[in-house]
Amino acid sequence: MNDYYKYSRRVFIVAAVITMSSPLAHAANWFSVQGISPANAPIFGVSGFIEPSIYAMSGTDAIVGKQSAVPNINRVAPNDTQSTMATIVRARLMLRGNLNKYISYFFGGEFGSDGFTDIRKKYQPGLIDGHVTFSYIPGARIEVGLIRAPSAEDAMQGFMANNFVVLPTVIGQLMQQTFYDSAANYHQANISGKPYLIGGSNTLGVNAYRYPGVQAMDWFRWGHWELAYGAMVGIYGSVAAGNQSNSPLVAGRLQGSYIFGGKGPFRSDVTAWVWYQHAQPQLGDQSYGMTRDGIGFQYLQGYMHQWGRRLRFEYIHGSGWISAPSAFSSNAGLTPSAATSNLTNTQLYTGSNNKANGYDIEAGLFFTKRIEADIRYDYYDRLPNNPAQQRIFKTWALGLQYHITPLTKIMAGYYFRSLTAPLSSSVPDSISNAVDNELAMQAMISF
């Protein structure tokens, strides 16, 4: 892990040296952008966006004993029923404004088909944002409600800053944590690590990085320099599924920026950050520790300007509560057995000794005002402490974007994916050999 931290510091210095002046880029201060409305915003404002998307994979089978089935990694989430699909991933309606110069509010409903609206494998739209920010105290704006908790950059970005259709695996598995019905009875698999087995009917979706709670946050400018912080105390659990929110959460992020120009949701800067989260999710009548932390930097310059460019690196570490999504769907046609039960249920590892870590690095370049090309590499090492269950995910992603307006664009990405099991067995080898590459296209349409 120390090597990644040292590497991120070296690249941060290089990025700072090569910067040149240019008007605009993506925002780095998500506390400002998402916490409060602009000073001149009206009392009541309506906005939103939709993201129609197409995903295409070959749907290659993997062998399980004497049977074969398409693994979930080759199917489109959250339903995991098809390998090629057209869908509306996100469809959001947002209300925000200023009640006065000290009080700002933001509410948003999610109506798309994604992990947030997939509750117990049934579609259920819901409130994804809902907070009020009070700016009476100098140096500490107080945000109350359903809040995007301080954490990794990919988890804090607004929709206009997404540069790839498919998120890095380390974000998807470590930070976009699925919740489980804590009142249900689960049995443990007779495999290394003794994970709990959790079926789809007991999965409660994700919170899309949001949690109910209270956050103190603010930012301070000295010329071109900016320091920002966010510290939150909240409740970890599923909001959409009702009374499953019953565990404590603490989270914090500190970031420093050098700003070249621009403001609001688009600016040019170099930013470095460090963040930490700790929660105590429950399963049955027992609580377990879950810690996530990370460090990263980004360099952004020239959004929607020819030769506009960006570079970002982030390292993420997790310990304690680590989940391994099911390898196959229960409707895959596999004959029920103890072995297939292990593979058609999520394997949840709860011990404090469990580890996972990963990183992603990405870059983008505007060839013209509207055409941007992107590249990303992401790496996720799950359960390196448990050689029998260790899995390593690697993905090279190539992306192309056409920006129609600053908030509306068309994206296409091709993802070269691999999965390895260092201590191989027949089933992991079969799944590893079957992993498909993926083509994904998406339009971000704002209103």
From TrEMBL:
The record ties this protein, via InterPro entries, to: Porin_dom_sf (IPR023614)
Q: Does the keyword Signal apply?
A: yes
Write the record's keywords in alphabetical order, separated by commas: Signal
Q: Which residues form the signal peptide?
A: 1-27
- Per its UniProt entry, which superkingdom is the organism in? Bacteria
Family annotation (Gene3D superfamilies)? Porin (2.40.160.10)
Q: What is this protein called?
A: Porin
Name the source organism: Acidithiobacillus ferrivorans
